[in-house]
């Protein structure tokens, strides 16, 4: 657990059997704890949409992902990350931060993203083939974007990468290493928030700080009021940096690999670049190497797929398995670059769906558009079955994406 296919891009054979015969299964997590495992689209969507059920924290006696309680619950429930995660305070936090991640705001950032992608690709081309697309483009691109958005120095990106990996670790780091990295990360971001408070700039954290200070003057602060507390600002910066490092960076490499492993897909996009947006959505749906899935803590008995799941259970929602459900998608195991509508669950759904999905979509579209324009002859430098998964983290990815042109 999580299940994996024969190659880094293939779905596990067990998904189809589980959806058909055991859609509400029991699975042993890396920690040794047991959780309920969902693979059908309707079940996953219904549970993620239900505001009663949220991600576990250390307040819940929930199934742990990894030994010693690390790998999600301990992190999100610690003093390190104090974003309100339940009820009205969570919704107020989402409204406060989410308005800076609308599709309209991301469109305004698009020209700058395109220039950045062009510069990174030009540098890759200048260094010559073969190249590792993940190292040359997939990793640095979203890192530079999120660093600029938050006003943190991009030269610290190697430290951010280590802290992000520790944040998402299941088996890669020991509990002591994770604890140390988290303490360093909190100290760094706390100092950064304090520096922005002293000397504001034109970035997201400075804006959130200014708004919070204005509202404190009016008598409200923190998750129970309108503005964000210091801890919430720190947690917001940390969460966005983690998302900007691992998730989008990994998705860039996986998307390009999926489009190149059957080069007729790449050729179709070259012939019709208007398909870029739907191709990005289909890459998000088709990705089987998404990682662990979303956990939800069940605080009361609930019926799922005709089975009663008792209160106190931890449920793992496998979005990639649900995204391959033939009940929801015709030709679910075929990558259809023109698929529409495409209501995939990769970003979750409901009150806890991914806050930064407009940013991720814009980044993926910009990267794909720029690669098609700048490097139309791009191809994988190794057979697709030789691509290697990233191991030991909550999120999936590829270690390298060797390419030539």
UniProtKB/TrEMBL annotation:
CDD domains per record: Cyp158A-like
Pfam families in the cross-refs: p450
One GO MF term on file is: monooxygenase activity
Q: Which domain of life is it from?
A: Bacteria
Q: Which SUPFAM superfamilies match?
A: Cytochrome P450
Per its UniProt record, what InterPro entries does this chain match?
A: Cyt_P450, Cyt_P450_B, Cyt_P450_CS, Cyt_P450_sf
> What Gene3D superfamilies does the annotation carry?
Cytochrome P450 (1.10.630.10)
Cofactor(s) needed by this chain: heme
Name the keywords, alphabetized: Heme, Iron, Metal-binding, Monooxygenase, Oxidoreductase
The family this protein is said to belong to:
Belongs to the cytochrome P450 family.
For this protein, the record's PANTHER family field holds: CYTOCHROME P450 BJ-1, P450, PUTATIVE (EUROFUNG)-RELATED
Protein name according to UniProt: Cytochrome P450
Species for this entry: Streptomyces cyaneogriseus subsp. noncyanogenus
């Amino acid at each position: 657990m999580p299940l994996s296919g024969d190659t880094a891009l293939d779905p596990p054979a067990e998904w189809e059997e589980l959806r058909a015969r055991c859609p509400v299964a029991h699975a042993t997590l890396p920690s040794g704890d047991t959780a309920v495992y969902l693979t059908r689209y309707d079940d996953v969507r219904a549970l993620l949409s239900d505001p009663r059920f949220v991600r576990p924290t250390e307040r819940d006696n929930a199934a742990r992902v990894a030994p010693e309680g690390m790998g999600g619950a301990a992190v999100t429930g610690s003093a390190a990350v104090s974003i309100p995660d339940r009820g009205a305070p969570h919704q107020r936090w989402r409204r406060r931060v989410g308005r800076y991640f609308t599709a309209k705001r991301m469109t305004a950032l698009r020209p700058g993203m395109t220039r950045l992608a062009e510069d990174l690709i030009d540098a890759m081309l200048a260094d010559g083939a073969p190249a590792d697309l993940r190292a040359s483009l997939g990793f640095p691109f979203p890192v530079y974007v999120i660093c600029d958005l938050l006003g943190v120095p991009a030269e610290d990106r190697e430290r951010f990468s280590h802290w992000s990996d520790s944040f998402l670790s299941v088996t890669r780091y020991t509990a002591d290493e994770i604890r140390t990295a988290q303490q360093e990360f909190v100290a760094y971001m706390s100092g950064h928030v304090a520096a922005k408070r002293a000397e504001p700039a034109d970035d997201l954290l400075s804006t959130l700080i200014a708004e919070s200070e204005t509202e404190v003057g009016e008598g409200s602060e923190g998750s129970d009021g309108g503005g964000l507390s210091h801890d919430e600002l720190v947690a917001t910066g940390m969460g966005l940096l983690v998302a900007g490092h691992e998730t989008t960076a990994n998705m860039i490499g996986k998307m390009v690999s999926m489009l190149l492993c059957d080069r007729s897909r790449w050729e179709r996009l070259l012939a019709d670049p208007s398909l870029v947006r739907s191709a990005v959505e289909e890459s998000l749906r088709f990705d089987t190497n998404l990682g662990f899935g979303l956990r939800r803590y069940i605080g009361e008995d609930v019926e799922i797929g005709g089975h009663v799941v008792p209160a106190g259970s931890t449920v793992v929602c496998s979005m990639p398995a649900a995204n391959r459900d033939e009940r929801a998608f015709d030709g679910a195991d075929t990558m259809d670059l023109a698929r529409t509508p495409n209501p995939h669950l990769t970003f979750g759904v409901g009150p806890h769906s991914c806050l930064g999905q407009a940013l991720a979509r814009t980044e993926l579209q910009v990267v794909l558009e720029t690669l098609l324009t700048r490097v139309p002859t791009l191809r994988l430098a190794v057979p697709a079955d030789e691509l290697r998964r990233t191991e030991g983290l909550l999120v999936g990815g590829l270690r390298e994406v060797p390419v030539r042109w």
